[in-house]
Amino acid sequence: MPLFRYQALNARGELLEGQLEAASAAELAARLQEQGHLPVQVVLAGTGTGLTSWRSLLRPAPFAGERLVRFTQQLATLLAAGQPLDRALGILMAQPDEPAARRIIADVRDAVREGASLSAALERQHGAFSRLYVNMVRAGEAGGSLAPTLQRLADYLERVHRLRARVINALVYPAILLVMVGLSLLFLLGYVVPQFAAMYDSLGADLPWFSRTVLTVGQWVRAGWIVLLALPLLAVLTVERLRRDLVFLQRLDGWLLARPRLGALLARLETARLARTLGTLLGNGVPLITALGIARNVLSNRVLAAQLETVIDEVKNGLSLAAALARTKGFPALAIQMIQVGEESGQLEAMLLKAADVFEQDTQASIERLLAALVPAVTLLLALVIGAVILSVLAPIYDLTNAVG
């Protein structure tokens, strides 16, 4: 089902924002009304105004990353210590610094006090907790092992968070380096180079073609500084438009997967995510078809997510998970073989978690190798660019000095 982003007013007049799956916008609006909320806006998650979309990117969700891990760990600890659920939630209300997070915990506690199960109370929180989270809690409630389930869920979330953090950290330094060198290059071209251009014009110097090219670019930069200031805004608007273009995003994901080294790395990363999610869900009693549907939403690559949709249909028709995955040609052969062994031995959950460990370690090693090669390569390339600009400006001075001498 498609994912919708919505805004609604609750009974207290507070604006609620979140994301939920529904067959249509009308169905989601009706569901919100049944819960006593007034829908304000319901749009596909990939659409919306630029301001709203970018605000959602810049403002973190009330429960995400470390905050969600900490909440889950603390709730598991309190329940394991024998605290009643409503009292445990009351204790946790004082923990988050984010008012929205405290309000969500308060709503969950109130729903539990009114007789709702924890999974039902979490599901009412307008997308603050993922389907995976809610289904894990529901499975723990059904099996009478809520505290151990929450602890396993916390471990899973922590692993996912660490893996995501590694990927982001690997890209931070090259990104900062590119920005700093880009600013330095703009300063050279927009301020330093035009001064040399004026000096060479006054001397009537005959410059080599490369120096003439750099000096001309410098004059363009200086004359078109207003355009350069508008470029970041244009880039933001372009990115925002492309983020809402589902066809473009699908093609981009396919293009990334087709890159020889990058595609293999992305496939292993997504495989680790898929295996960890499936293994964790199956270990808590979630049926395979349901677990696959949840895992599909965990994948960030749209091509692989679409392939997993095909896998779900084939598994429903009686095909084994390993055979269905093998037909997609998108997932690593090693992962498929491990899943096949797990199915044949009746230990699918354990083999999925083992496959997740293998591919997480492999991905981490690949990212570290990539970073070790990327940073020096980017540094060398940018140093060559800046060096070439400086040399193109200073070389004519050396030639003029030799001519005078």
Automatic annotation (TrEMBL):
Coiled coil: none annotated. GO terms for biological process: protein secretion by the type II secretion system. It comes from Thermomonas hydrothermalis. This is General secretion pathway protein F. It is a multi-pass membrane protein. Keywords: Cell inner membrane, Cell membrane, Membrane, Transmembrane, Transmembrane helix, Transport. It is found in: Cell inner membrane. It holds the Pfam family T2SSF. NCBIfam families: T3SSXpsF. InterPro entries: GspF/PilC, T2SS_GspF/T4SS_PilC_CS, T2SS_GspF_dom, T2SS_GspF_sf. Belongs to the GSP F family. The chain crosses the membrane at residues 171-200, 220-239, 370-398. Residues 71-194, 275-396 form the Type II secretion system protein GspF domain. GO terms for cellular component: plasma membrane.
